[in-house]
C-alpha cells in the first residue's frame, strides 16, 4: 500500500513538473513576442509609416494659403483725388463645398489601411518568432535524442566487444557499431551548428544580441486549436489584416472619386484691394481706395480632364475588388493547407507515441537476446535506427502542430 502511494506521488510530481514547464515555456514565448514587438526594426518602420499617414489629414483639410500681393506704381496713376502710389491685395481661395472634407476622409481611410499593413507585419513577425521558437525546440530535442542514441550504441559496443573477445561473434559487429556512432556524431555536429543559426535568426527577430541564449522548454505543449474549422475560416474572411487593408483602400477610393467629381466644380476666390493715394495738385492728401469684397471664380472648362480623373478612380475600384477576391482565394488555399498540416501533426503525435513505445520495448528485448547470443546484431541496429526515427518524429510532430496553429492564427489576424 505504501509502495503504491509512493508511486502515485511520484507520478503526480512528474505531472505537475511537466505542467509547470509548459506554463513557464508559454510565458517565456509571450515575453519574447513582446520583446519582438518593442524592438523589431521592420515593425517600427511600418508603425512610423502609419504615423506619417496620420499627419496627412490635417494638411489636406486645410484651406489653401491666402495670397497677399504688393504693387508699387513706378509711374503714379493720376486720379481726381491724387496719384495712386502703391496697392496691397489679399485673397483666399475656397474649393467647392465638401471638397476638403472628402480629402480628409480619403486620407483617414488611407491611414487606416497603413495601420492594417502595420498589424499584418506584426502578425507575420509573431508567426515567424513562434515558428523559429518551435524549430529551436525540435533542434534541441534532436540533439538530446541523438546523444541518447549514441549512449545506447555505446552500451551495445561494450556487449559486442565482450562477445568478440569471447569468440562468439565476428569483429564486424563492433565495426558496425563504430560506423553507426560515427554517423550519429556527424549528425550531432550538424544539429549543433543548425542550433546556432536558429538562435541567431530568433534573436534577430527580437533585435537583441545574437549570443543571447534562448530559453527552450523541456516539453512542448500540444494544445489543440481552440476554434472549429469553419469558425477559423470565417475569422480569416472578416479579420485578416490584408483583407481589412484592401477594404480601407477601397473606401479611400470612394472618397477620391468624390474629390475628382468636386474638382470639376468651380472654386471661389474672395479678397480685397487697398490702394494708397498720394497728395494731389492742391497739395491735399488723397483718399485711399478700399475695395471689398473682390470675388473671383475658377471655371473648370476642360471637362475631359475631370472625366478622366473620375474614370481613373473607377478603374482602381474595380482593380481593388478583383484584388480582394484573389486575396480571399489565396488565403483560403493557405488555410486549407495549414489545417491539413495541423491534422497531420496531431495524427502523427498519436502514431509516433505508440511506435516509440513499441520500439523501446523491442530494443530492450533485443538487447537481452543479443547479450545471450540468440539474435543477429543486424536486427539490433535496425531497431535502434527505428527508435531514433520515432523519437525524432514525435518531437517534430509536436513542433509542427504548434507551428500550424500559429500559422492559422496569423491568417486569422490574431
In a nutshell, what does this entry contain?
This protein has helices at residues 2-39, 41-54, 56-60, 99-165, 172-206, 229-239, 241-263, 303-371, 377-411, and strands at residues 67-79, 82-94, 267-277, 289-298. The protein is an alpha+beta fold.
Structure description:
With 414 residues, the protein is of the alpha+beta class. The protein has one domain: Outer membrane efflux proteins (OEP) (Up-down Bundle). Helices cover 72% and strands 11% of the residues. The chain is built from nine helices and four strands, in the order H-H-H-E-E-H-H-H-H-E-E-H-H. The model is unreliable at 1-23 (pLDDT under 50).
**Global structural class:** alpha+beta
For the largest beta sheet, what order do the strands appear in spatially? 1-2-3-4
Order of helices and strands: HHHEEHHHHEEHH
Using the CA coordinates, give the radius of gyration: 39 Å
Q: How many E strands?
A: 4
* Residues in helices, as a percent range: over 70%
List the uncertain runs: 1-23
DSSP helical segment count:
9
Topology, element by element:
Elements: H1 2-39, H2 41-54, H3 56-60, E1 67-79, E2 82-94, H4 99-165, H5 172-206, H6 229-239, H7 241-263, E3 267-277, E4 289-298, H8 303-371, H9 377-411
Amino acid at each position: 500500500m505504501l509502495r503504491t502511494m509512493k508511486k502515485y506521488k511520484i507520478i503526480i510530481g512528474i505531472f505537475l513538473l511537466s505542467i509547470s514547464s509548459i506554463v513557464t515555456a508559454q510565458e517565456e514565448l509571450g515575453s519574447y513576442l513582446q520583446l519582438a514587438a518593442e524592438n523589431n526594426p521592420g515593425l517600427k518602420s511600418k508603425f512610423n509609416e502609419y504615423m506619417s499617414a496620420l499627419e496627412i489629414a490635417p494638411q489636406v483639410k486645410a484651406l489653401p494659403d491666402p495670397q497677399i500681393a504688393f504693387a508699387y506704381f513706378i509711374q503714379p496713376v493720376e486720379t481726381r483725388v491724387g496719384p495712386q502710389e502703391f496697392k496691397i491685395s489679399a485673397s483666399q481661395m475656397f474649393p467647392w463645398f465638401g471638397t476638403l472634407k472628402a480629402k480628409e476622409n480619403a486620407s483617414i481611410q488611407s491611414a487606416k489601411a497603413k495601420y492594417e499593413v502595420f498589424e499584418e507585419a506584426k502578425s507575420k513577425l509573431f508567426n515567424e518568432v513562434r515558428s523559429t521558437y518551435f524549430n529551436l525546440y525540435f533542434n534541441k530535442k534532436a540533439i538530446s535524442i541523438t546523444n541518447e542514441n549514441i549512449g545506447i550504441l555505446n552500451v551495445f559496443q561494450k556487449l559486442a566487444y565482450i562477445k568478440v573477445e569471447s569468440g562468439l561473434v565476428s569483429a564486424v559487429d563492433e565495426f558496425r557499431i563504430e560506423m553507426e556512432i560515427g554517423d550519429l556524431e556527424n549528425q550531432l555536429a550538424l544539429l549543433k551548428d543548425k542550433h546556432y543559426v536558429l538562435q541567431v535568426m530568433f534573436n534577430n527577430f527580437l533585435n537583441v544580441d545574437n549570443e543571447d541564449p534562448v530559453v527552450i522548454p523541456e516539453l512542448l505543449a500540444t494544445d489543440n486549436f481552440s476554434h472549429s474549422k469553419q469558425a477559423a475560416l470565417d475569422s480569416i474572411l472578416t479579420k485578416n489584416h490584408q483583407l481589412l487593408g484592401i477594404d480601407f483602400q477601397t473606401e479611400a477610393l470612394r472618397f477620391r472619386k468624390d474629390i475628382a467629381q468636386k474638382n470639376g466644380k468651380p472654386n471661389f476666390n474672395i479678397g480685397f484691394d487697398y490702394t494708397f493715394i498720394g497728395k494731389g495738385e492742391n497739395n491735399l492728401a488723397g483718399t485711399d481706395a478700399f475695395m471689398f469684397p473682390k470675388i473671383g471664380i475658377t471655371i473648370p472648362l476642360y471637362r475631359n480632364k475631370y472625366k478622366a480623373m473620375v474614370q481613373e478612380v473607377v478603374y482602381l475600384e474595380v482593380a481593388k475588388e478583383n484584388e480582394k477576391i484573389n486575396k480571399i482565394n489565396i488565403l483560403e488555399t493557405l488555410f486549407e493547407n495549414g489545417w491539413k498540416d495541423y491534422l497531420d501533426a496531431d495524427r502523427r503525435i498519436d502514431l509516433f507515441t505508440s511506435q516509440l513505445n513499441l520500439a523501446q520495448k523491442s530494443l530492450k528485448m533485443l538487447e537481452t537476446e543479443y547479450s545471450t547470443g540468440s539474435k543477429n546484431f543486424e536486427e539490433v541496429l535496425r531497431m535502434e535506427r527505428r527508435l531514433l526515427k520515432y523519437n525524432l518524429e514525435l518531437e517534430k510532430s509536436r513542433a509542427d502542430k504548434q507551428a500550424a496553429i500559429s500559422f492559422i492564427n496569423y491568417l486569422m489576424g490574431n
